[in-house]
Design a protein that fits this description.
Layout: H1 6-20, H2 24-54, E1 62-70, E2 75-81, H3 83-102, H4 110-129, H5 133-154, H6 159-187, H7 195-201, H8 206-223, H9 232-239, H10 242-252, H11 254-267, H12 269-295, H13 300-321, H14 324-355, H15 366-369, H16 371-384, H17 391-404, H18 409-437, H19 454-472, H20 475-500
Antiparallel strand pairs: 1-2
């Protein structure tokens, strides 16, 4: 059995431990122990992966393992990781670890909350380690199902409406996705569900690719907040409890971009080239529309939610550019956005827990009252607007430089339009920071509020360290990602070039 299976086994043991736990301290102990083990495992995997690559191992996937579990449809439990999977697993572990501390004081039904939270993380980990399409889809659904209860039971505001809207729209995307997966399976000769083996066959007819590419891309794109299928995202984020918003925006939305690249574009390359212009228009709209929408919001969570629509749209935008530099930027943006949006949602949840409002019109002077949380919010904002020294700058600059490498008018025009989102992002970030942190204290009651507790400081400090660390030393991540992109982009571009001849 591959070491990767521990990413599913450890959450399964956490579920058992939570079920057996009899008091709050035991529940917290299980979560901290499990989340710490997952974080250490992901760090070990990252270091080992880099060492194996440096040692000359050029296999497309490392730590591979496969065992059939439904032979009539050639479905297998197949696992393996490349550089993209490794950094996504590391991101997931960081968010689960910090999300545990961000939920330290959550009540009521703490045990039940962490049970569903752990099940959600199980689906995320399983998705990133899997190379079998059907098994990947199964873990994808495992990650989506708990969202309904986590928002509907522990959420705030219009939580029932938000939970229902999120579930219906994502299930609609899943319906398209399963049709696309079955189309790829039967179109490739119905001999395997393994992504790598299907890619080696190169035998899916182009006309069939054009039919099923939109199914798969839109199916995953719904989760990646692709315009106009993004409307579930702001409502879902705004109503979700803090750690769920962190995991949802920080990791779950990345399943969309990962799936679009790993399945839709990799397995249907001719269709990707021929239909990319349609989705480039939609993603350009996502980038600009999300930023402009954030400008007119008054709820802190809605501001960050629409910001996530813009940043996740930028991921799909860069992937569709299909240059190595742009795709490297897309993966870095997944990593960067995951960290900084988790930091944002954690801080918003902590501020809301004290002031009982997220309305920027009712907040002010928080820097005097809770300086630690306020400084953390400034750091998250500066990372979000792409200030040099933070992860957002590295990711966005790489995306825009790589996108501009396409020397035709259409791609360069789309890139210039997308670049305008940087200015718009600076507008809404600086406006909110100035309004809620500085000036006169909005309510005399706020003067009695306390700053961050020790558990909140652990979560915030870890995320700030990661956001600044990736911004200051990004080369290790970009090198890992570059090595993984070479075979994928070679396949996408070479197969398309042959088909054109």
């Amino acid at each position: 059995m591959s070491i990767l299976s521990l990413f599913v086994l450890i959450p399964a043991l956490m579920l058992l431990g939570l079920w057996l736990a009899r008091n709050l301290n035991q529940v917290r102990g299980v979560m901290v122990t499990g989340a710490s083990c997952l974080l250490l495992l992901s760090i070990w995997l990252t270091v080992t992966f880099i060492q194996m690559r440096a040692g000359g191992n050029t296999d497309e996937m490392l730590f591979t393992y496969s065992i059939p579990w439904f032979e009539p449809l050639n479905i297998a439990y197949s696992v393996g990781v490349d550089g993209i999977s490794v950094v996504m697993l590391l991101l997931s572990s960081i968010i689960v670890f910090t999300g545990t501390f961000a939920s330290w004081q959550l009540k009521p039904l703490t045990k039940e909350y962490f049970l569903w939270f752990t099940l959600l993380s199980t689906g995320v980990y399983g998705f990133f380690i899997t190379t079998d399409m059907f098994t990947m889809f199964m873990f994808y659904e495992v990650a989506l199902i708990p969202m309904y209860l986590l928002i509907g039971v522990w959420g705030s505001g219009h939580k029932e409406y938000s939970a229902m809207k999120l579930t219906l729209m994502l299930m609609g995307g899943s319906a398209l996705l399963i049709l696309g997966i079955l189309g790829i399976y039967f179109g490739s000769g119905a001999t395997t569900m393994n992504v790598l083996e299907i890619a080696r066959m190169h035998n899916i007819p182009v006309d069939m690719q054009k039919v099923f590419f939109p199914f798969v891309f839109i199916g995953f794109g719904v989760l990646g907040a692709l315009f106009p299928f993004h409307t579930w995202s702001p409502d879902g984020h705004a109503s979700a409890p803090t750690a769920v918003s962190m995991l949802h925006a920080g990791v779950l939305m990345k399943l969309g971009g990962y799936g679009c690249f790993r399945i839709a574009m990799f397995l249907l390359p001719e269709a990707a080239h021929e239909l990319a212009w349609i989705f480039l228009i939609l993603t350009t709209i996502s980038v600009v529309y999300g930023a402009l929408s954030a400008c007119v919001q008054t709820d802190l969570k809605y501001i960050n939610a629409y910001s996530s629509v813009s940043h996740c749209g930028l991921v799909l935008f860069a992937l569709l550019m299909m240059t190595k530099t742009a795709c490297t930027g897309a993966i870095l943006q997944m990593l960067s956005h995951g960290l900084m949006t988790a930091l944002f949602f954690a801080l918003i949840g902590m501020i809301y827990g004290r002031t009982h409002t997220r309305d920027v019109r009712q907040l002010g002077g928080l820097m005097k009252i809770m300086p630690f949380l306020s400084v953390g919010y400034v750091v998250a904002g500066l990372a979000n607007l792409g200030l040099p020294g933070f992860s957002g700058f590295v990711a966005e600059m790489t995306i825009f430089v790589g996108s501009f490498m396409n020397n035709d008018v259409f791609h360069r025009t789309a890139t210039i339009i997308a670049c305008t989102s940087i200015v718009v992002t600076a507008v809404y970030i600086l406006r909110v920071v100035g309004k809620i942190l500085y000036g006169k204290v909005a309510d005399p009651h706020y003067e009695t509020l306390t700053d961050a507790t020790w558990d909140e400081r652990v979560a915030v400090c870890c995320l700030i360290f990661c956001v600044a660390g990736l911004g200051i030393a990004p080369l290790w991540a970009s090198d890992v990602i570059d090595n993984a992109l070479v075979p994928i982009l070679d396949h996408i571009n070479n197969v398309s070039a042959i088909a054109a001849i």
